[in-house]
Amino acid sequence: MIDIHTHVLPGIDDGSRDLRTSMRMLMMAYKYGTRRVIATPHFRGDRYTATPDQIYRLTEQLNENIQTVGLQDLKVYPGNEILYDSRTSRYLREGRVLGLADTTYALIEFMPYVAEEEVRRAVMDIRMSGFRPVIAHVERYDQLEMDPDILYDLREQGARIQINASSLEGKVKRRILRTMKEGLIDFVASDGHGLEHRPMILGQNRRYIEKKLGTEAARDLYCCNAGEILAESPYR
Ligand SMILES: [Fe+2]
């Protein structure tokens, strides 16, 4: 499986605290079947502002450690989770923030109360600058209400849609399933921040999804769709 949304890099945002925690997060992910991980530290203009160089360096450090502990078939890629604002598309173009695995897919988050119009505008804005927005944990935005019509439109505009694995156990589970059935969700990711709170485990609901949607649809959600991103990465 491929996890496209994680806060596994140490000491850079509100995710992993240190290298030891990062390695334990990775080992846990590995144990539950994840083999590819995109590190997506927060980029929020005023608070989290790690530079691409820092992100590259920490990603490399994790990959070196992975080799040391013998998890040869596990790999970490660089990236960002970008809180959208008016500077986002310029920052993407200038390389001040990173696309997922350094591709033109960009993981974009919004404040929970964001207006639907703002999301639509953001998607257009990012598309115009040559990037493809992946909307992070879409189930969190109250005003979108997991409305199939809205998700359909956003995807038509060129957005891709991610939900958090942990939400498959929450109140929005039914709505998520309905939109999944309609093919409106592209990725299940962990959004893992640590070992306990939202751990970096992807697959615990995969069986359930397979049962509800079929094995092929589950494979797309947990693996194949993300594989298309990695296929474009310079770090293959
Ligand atoms: Fe996140």
UniProtKB/TrEMBL annotation:
InterPro entries reported for this sequence: Caps_polysacc_synth_CpsB/CapC, Pol/histidinol_Pase-like
Keywords: Hydrolase, Protein phosphatase
EC number: 3.1.3.48
Protein biosynthesis as UniProt keyword: no
Root EC class: hydrolase
Leader sequence residues: none
Single Gene Ontology MF annotation: manganese ion binding
A Pfam family per the record: CpsB_CapC
Reactions performed catalytically: O-phospho-L-tyrosyl-[protein] + H2O = L-tyrosyl-[protein] + phosphate
Family: Belongs to the metallo-dependent hydrolases superfamily. CpsB/CapC family.
Name under which the protein is recorded: protein-tyrosine-phosphatase
